[in-house]
Each structure stands twice: as structure tokens, then as C-alpha cells.
């Protein structure tokens, strides 16, 4: 089996407080895996460690065949720009850039300009008509659709989504999840989706739960 992301024996503590240990995880291309767990169980910390934004204390992480923890900061940033899309609960769009420019950002950071691809992604999330708008002129559901387009525009192999529907009402949450599902499946990207919502978790291909004993399939 081809594996996009593989983590082995991951452990993380803050000072004297262990957050998690012994975490093993594998994600295959095209699958969406929901990550569930109580508040404070360490879901966001695990996501940040997998993204290389936070440093695990032990274990290994292989992303797209590269050993993340053995890399220096520069190489890790370059790998992240190429292979990772991140979707946050609070959208994190740049307020002074238009919708199209926000979606184009990951390509620009890779030194690429591909307006056709930006339009294609805006069409995929049904926002082509709003390409010239500024983020403040969009609804929460529309902002999250922009964030999905931005996370996938550079064809990353891994998408990490941290409660991407946490700010949305049920109808918009369902719409955004369906788009995330369709876009990641079509792109063949693996997606790890942190969520408190059982409905969101049911939309995933697999469900994992993080607790004091570690990470378990459901
Ligand atoms: N920078 C930090 N320094 C110290 N402790 C931290 C830090 N960040 C997180 N923690 C602690 O680590 C634990 C895990 O936090 P984390 O945010 O990963 O949980 P979570 O499962 O994502 O929670 P939630 O569902 O509420 O977002 C918590 O007990 C939290 O207080």
C-alpha cells in the first residue's frame, strides 16, 4: 500500500504533562480519516506535530517518503509548502487579498503562477462568481470553501483540517464536508480531519479516537 503519512511511536509532553505517547498512524492516498477525542486530549497538538509546526518529543513521521523529524527547518518548510494543505476552524484567510489571490497563495509560495488551476479550484467549491470579492464580503460557509480551495490548489498529498466546520451551522457544515470529501477524493490526497461532530465523523472513511491510552480505530 502506498502511504502518504506514517507516524510511529509519536510522543509529546508539555513540561511534566504528557499529552500523548505511542501514537502510530498511517494515511493512504484519497482517504479521509476523522480524528475524534475529548477536549484537551491532544488532537490539535497531534495535527501540529504531523505538520511539523510543533516538535514531537519521540517517534518518527514520514511524509511523502521524507523523514520529517530528521530534516532541518528549511527543508521541512519546503516539504510543508509542497505536500501539505491546512484548513483551520477560523479560516485564516488573508483579509487584504481577494478570494482568488487567497486561493493562489500556496502556488505563489512555490514560485508558480497558474490562473487556470485557481479558477478550477474556485469552480470545484462553487465560488467562481465570487473570485474578486474580499474575505470580509463572504459568509462563514463561503470562507471555509475558499479555505478548502486554497488547501488543495497546489495538489498537496496531505490535507490536515482542524475542526473546519466548528464555526458553521449544520447545513453549511454538511455542504463544506461534502466538498472537502469530494475535493480530497478527486485529488487523491489523504485528509486527517479533527472534529467534535459525529455527523462530520460519519462522512469520513475511517474514524480514530485519541485518549489517554493512545489512538484507536472505532
Ligand atoms: N503550548 C502549550 N503549553 C502547555 N500545554 C499545552 C500547550 N498547548 C496545548 N497544551 C495542553 O495540551 C493538551 C492538549 O491540547 P490540544 O489543544 O492538543 O487538545 P485538543 O484535543 O485539540 O482540544 P480541543 O478539542 O479542546 O481543541 C491540553 O491539556 C492543553 O492544555
From TrEMBL:
Secretion signal, residue range per the UniProt entry: none
Entry-linked InterPro entries: AAA+_ATPase, ABC_transporter-like_ATP-bd, ABC_transporter-like_CS, ABC_transpr_LolD-like, MacB-like_ATP-bd, P-loop_NTPase
SUPFAM superfamilies: P-loop containing nucleoside triphosphate hydrolases (SSF52540)
UniProt-recorded Gene Ontology molecular function terms: ATP binding
SMART domains according to UniProt: AAA (SM00382)
Gene3D superfamilies: P-loop containing nucleotide triphosphate hydrolases
Pfam families on file: ABC_tran
Domain ABC transporter as annotated: residue spans: 5-218
Keywords (A to Z) from UniProt: ATP-binding, Cell membrane, Membrane, Nucleotide-binding, Transport
PANTHER family linked: IMPORT ATP-BINDING PROTEIN, TRANSPORTER, PUTATIVE-RELATED
Protein name: ABC transporter ATP-binding protein
Organism encoding this protein: Pelomonas cellulosilytica
Lineage: Bacteria, Pseudomonadati, Pseudomonadota, Betaproteobacteria, Burkholderiales
Amino acid at each position: 500500500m502506498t502511504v502518504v503519512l506514517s507516524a510511529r511511536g509519536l510522543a509529546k509532553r508539555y513540561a511534566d504533562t504528557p499529552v500523548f505517547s505511542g501514537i502510530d498512524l498511517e494515511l493512504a492516498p484519497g482517504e479521509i480519516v476523522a480524528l475524534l477525542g475529548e477536549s484537551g486530549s491532544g488532537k490539535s497538538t497531534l495535527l501540529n506535530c504531523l505538520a511539523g509546526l510543533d516538535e514531537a518529543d519521540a517517534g518518527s513521521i514520514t511524509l511523502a517518503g521524507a523523514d520529517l523529524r530528521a530534516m532541518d527547518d528549511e527543508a521541512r518548510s519546503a516539504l510543508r509548502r509542497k505536500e501539505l494543505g491546512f484548513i483551520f476552524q477560523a479560516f485564516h484567510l488573508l483579509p487584504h487579498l481577494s478570494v482568488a489571490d487567497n486561493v493562489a497563495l500556496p502556488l505563489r509560495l512555490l514560485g508558480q503562477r497558474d490562473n487556470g488551476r485557481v479558477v478550477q479550484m474556485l469552480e470545484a467549491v462553487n465560488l467562481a462568481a465570487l473570485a474578486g470579492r474580499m474575505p470580509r464580503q463572504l459568509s462563514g460557509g463561503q470562507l471555509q470553501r475558499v479555505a478548502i480551495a486554497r488547501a488543495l490548489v497546489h495538489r498537496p498529498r496531505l490535507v490536515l483540517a482542524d475542526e473546519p466546520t466548528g464555526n458553521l451551522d449544520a447545513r453549511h457544515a454538511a455542504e463544506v464536508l461534502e466538498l472537502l470529501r469530494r475535493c480530497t477524493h478527486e485529488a487523491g490526497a489523504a485528509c486527517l480531519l479533527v472534529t467534535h461532530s459525529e455527523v462530520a465523523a460519519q462522512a469520513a472513511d475511517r474514524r480514530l479516537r485519541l485518549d489517554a491510552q493512545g489512538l484507536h480505530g472505532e
